[in-house]
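User: Here's a chain of 433 residues. Predict its fold as tokens.
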Amino acid sequence: MHNATSGSNAAAGTPATAGGAGQQAAGSNTAAAGLNTAAAGLSAAMGERRIREILDAAPDAILQVDQQGRIILLNRATEKMFGYDRTDLLGQPVEILIPEEVRPRHHGHRAGYENHASIRPMGIGMQLEGLRRDGSRFPVEISLSPSESPEMGFTTTAIIRDITERKLVEARFSAAQEKYTGDLIEANQQLEVQNREIERANRLKSEFLASMSHELRTPLHTIIGFSELLGEELHGFLTEKQKRFVGHIHTDSLHLLDLINDILDLSKIEAGRLELRPEPFDFAALVAESMASVRTVTRAKSLGTEANIQVDGAVEADRVRVKQILVNLLSNAAKFTPHSGHIRVDAKTVDGFLVTSVTDTGVGIAPEEHEAIFDQFYQTGVTTRGVREGTGLGLAITRRLVHGHGGTINVESTPGKGSFFTFTVPMRPRRDA
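Assistant: Prediction complete.
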């Protein structure tokens, strides 16, 4: 019995023990569900706090507006930028942050944005301003981003940047640019006035030189003519001393006449009054005439001369001026070539141009002077006589005459090894349309 009772008790105790275990399991499940809920809430709270920390760390103002235009979210930068507390702005219409005169239009803009929502800047091409709590205004840039959810419906997130510093920099830059532009305009005006004055001075100078040259040439021709008559001794013999004096008068008068002619030519060229008169001519014959013009000097210094002319047909250019070019180059060659030296003239046609070179075995020209020798009144070194000769106008006139024909001139020279001048002129004059 005892055993039966015990067995009965044991048997009876079995379901009691099972019921206790079930109650414990149910309690554990409830506790676990509570823990999960708490964990989820904690996780959500932590996520929300983390989002809040990220928003508050942003340097720009960030706020979110619902479909009715009420502010439902903002960060710390928004409070600082506009001077409001968070609680003062939450639930308020976003128009509180913009100037009063544009608020009526802003309602329409919000509705239009909702109908054509996209991520884009606000007010493209417009000067946007924010309004602080104290009533002060400041320039802003605003970027808009739409979103929509079942809980919140349509919302718009705005990122607002205060661009006051940028506007100040732009204003300073604009002011500096305006000042620079103004100074540049003023400088250009002054330069224009100076250029007109220089042009007027050059014109007056050219007119004066032309007038004086004509006035001086007339008596010079008389002096030259009478000195030649005296030298011919048609009206009586002269002593050796008198002949020497007459020779000096004649030589110096011719030199002065050459100088006056050079000045007159240069003044005409600068004034644009020098007219070229093209005509067909035999270039080989012209070279022979030009070399004859310097024969007195070449013979006196025992200079060898030769010409190699290979020109097809007649040249059509200003014969007088081309001869002047040649004589100037030949005169310089004779002047700067030592005793028993050599002068050579070569000419040929290349692609419709007459290419002529004058080569000598003279003293040569330093490389740094190759361009300067074509400047007015520039004289390079000394002649073989140990003195500077001429006026420094010959090559200046020569280059202008070459350019007037539409050609070019250049020099190759090394000190002590002579010079090689080359100039080109068209075989036929240019026919401008």
